[in-house]
Design goal:
Layout lengths: L1 E7 L6 H13 L4 E6 L14 H12 L5 E3 L2 H5 L5 H11 L4 E7 H5 L7 H7 L1 E6 L5 H15 L3 E5 L7 H10 L9 H13 L1 H21 L3 H10 L15 H12 L6 H8 L10 H12 L8 H10 L1 H19 L5 H10 L4 H5 L1
Parallel strand pairs: 1-2, 1-4, 2-3, 4-5, 5-6
C-alpha cells in the first residue's frame, strides 16, 4: 500500500486541491490520499486563518464522495507548530507496512531542504511533486536528481492541473460577494457563504445544529448528507445581530434561497428548512429531525432542556409533540401569536398517539 499525504492549511479546500489529489492517485500509484490540515504551518506563523474545526469540516464535505480520499486530523489534534517529519512518522506508525508519500507542489518542493530535519524527511519518505509544464520544471528536475543521489529519495513528478486558484482568492471573493461556484465543492460553498452571511456567533449555533441533526439522522435512519445541508442552511436568512421574537419569516426565506440560489430541488430538504421553526402537520422524518435539533442543540440552556433532549433522543415523534406543546405555551406566555402550522401539527399529534392520552 502506498498512501499519499497532502498537507496544507486548506482554508478553504478548493477544486485545485481535489484535482491534484486525484491526479496523484493515478500517476503516483497511490492507494488513497490523506488530506492533513496543519494546525500552524512553520512558514505561516502569525497568519490569521479559519479555525481547525471549520477547515476540517469543509475537508470532510469536499472529500465525502471519494472513497479513496480521507481526512487526517493528526496535526490539529496535536496542536502547536506542524512539522511534516513528525506527522509523517506518526502516520507511518498508524499504517504499518504502508509506504508514505508526501504530496507537494513545485514551490514547496524547491524549498524542501529548508524544512525541519529535511535530510531525514527526504530519505525516509517518498514525494509526489505536482508540476506544470515550463513552471520551474528544470529547477525541480535538477533538485530531484540531487536528492535521489544524496538520499536515495523516491520522487515522482505528476501533472498539476493548470487551474489558477488560491484559498486566499476564494476567501476574498466571499467577502466581496463574488461567486465561488465551481471553485470549491458545492457543500463547501454553502458552508463558506452561510458562515459569512450569519456571522461567526450565529454560525456556531448552526454547526451545533448540524452535529446534532446528523447524529439524530444516524439514529433514526435518515440520510446524513441531506440532513447536514438542511441544517447548514436553516438560519441562512436570520439576522446575525438578533431579531424579532419568534421571527419565523427567515425560515421560508432560507428555503427560497436554497432552491433559487443553491439549486436545491429536493422538496423534503426544502420543507425541513421552511418549517424548522414551527413544525407542521404531515412532517417528514427529516423535517422532524431539523425541527428538534434546532430546539435542543447543546447551546440551548432553558429550564426543561435536559428532559426534552432525553425525550427527543428516545422517541422522535414524542419529542416533536413535546417540543410543539412547549413552543405553544412559551409563545402564549410571551403574547406572541402561535403559527397555524404549529397548531395543525399539535392537532395531528393529538389525533391518536397513545402516549399522549397515557400522560
Amino acid at each position: 500500500m502506498r498512501i499519499g499525504v497532502f498537507g496544507g492549511t486548506f482554508d478553504p479546500v478548493h477544486i485545485g486541491h481535489l484535482l491534484l489529489a486525484e491526479t496523484a492517485l493515478v500517476q503516483a500509484g497511490l492507494s488513497k490520499v490523506l488530506f492533513m490540515p496543519a494546525y500552524i504551518q512553520p512558514f505561516k506563523q502569525g497568519v490569521q486563518m479559519s479555525s481547525d474545526d471549520d477547515r476540517i469540516r469543509m475537508l470532510n464535505f469536499a472529500t465525502k464522495d471519494n472513497p479513496r480520499f480521507e481526512v487526517s486530523t493528526i496535526e490539529c489534534d496535536k496542536g502547536g507548530i506542524s512539522y511534516t517529519i513528525d506527522s509523517l512518522r506518526a502516520l507511518r506508525e498508524e499504517n504499518a507496512g504502508a509506504e508514505i508519500c508526501f504530496l507537494i507542489g513545485t514551490d514547496m518542493f524547491l524549498n524542501i531542504e529548508k524544512w525541519k530535519d529535511s535530510d531525514a524527511l527526504i530519505s525516509e519518505f517518498g514525494f509526489a511533486v505536482g508540476v506544470r509544464p515550463g513552471y520551474h520544471t528544470s529547477e525541480a528536475e535538477a533538485l530531484a536528481e540531487k536528492l535521489k543521489k544524496t538520499y536515495g529519495a523516491r520522487i515522482d513528478f505528476i501533472d498539476n492541473p493548470p487551474i489558477e486558484l488560491s484559498s486566499t482568492e476564494i476567501r476574498q471573493r466571499v467577502k466581496d460577494g463574488d461567486t465561488i461556484r465551481y471553485r470549491v465543492q458545492e457543500t463547501v460553498r454553502i458552508y463558506l457563504l452561510a458562515r459569512e452571511k450569519e456571522g461567526q456567533k450565529r454560525f456556531e449555533h448552526t454547526k451545533r445544529v448540524v452535529d446534532l441533526a446528523v447524529s439524530m439522522a444516524r439514529r433514526y435512519g435518515e440520510d446524513e448528507y441531506r440532513t447536514s445541508v438542511a441544517a447548514l442552511l436553516h438560519d441562512y436568512c436570520k439576522n446575525p445581530d438578533g431579531g424579532v421574537e419568534n421571527d419565523i419569516g427567515h425560515a421560508g426565506m432560507a428555503a427560497d434561497i436554497a432552491k433559487n440560489e443553491f439549486g436545491i430541488a429536493d422538496e423534503d430538504l426544502l420543507n425541513a428548512i421552511r418549517y424548522h421553526t414551527t413544525g407542521r402537520a404531515g412532517m417528514s422524518r427529516l423535517e422532524k429531525i431539523l425541527f428538534l435539533a434546532d430546539t435542543i442543540e447543546p447551546g440551548r440552556t432553558y429550564d426543561s432542556i435536559s428532559e426534552l433532549r432525553e425525550t427527543c433522543l428516545k422517541d422522535l415523534d414524542k419529542g416533536v409533540y413535546t417540543v410543539l406543546v412547549e413552543l405553544k405555551a412559551y409563545l402564549e406566555k410571551k403574547g406572541v401569536a402561535v403559527s397555524v402550522d404549529t397548531e395543525a401539527a399539535i392537532s395531528e399529534c393529538q389525533g391518536g398517539k397513545s402516549w399522549i392520552t397515557e400522560n
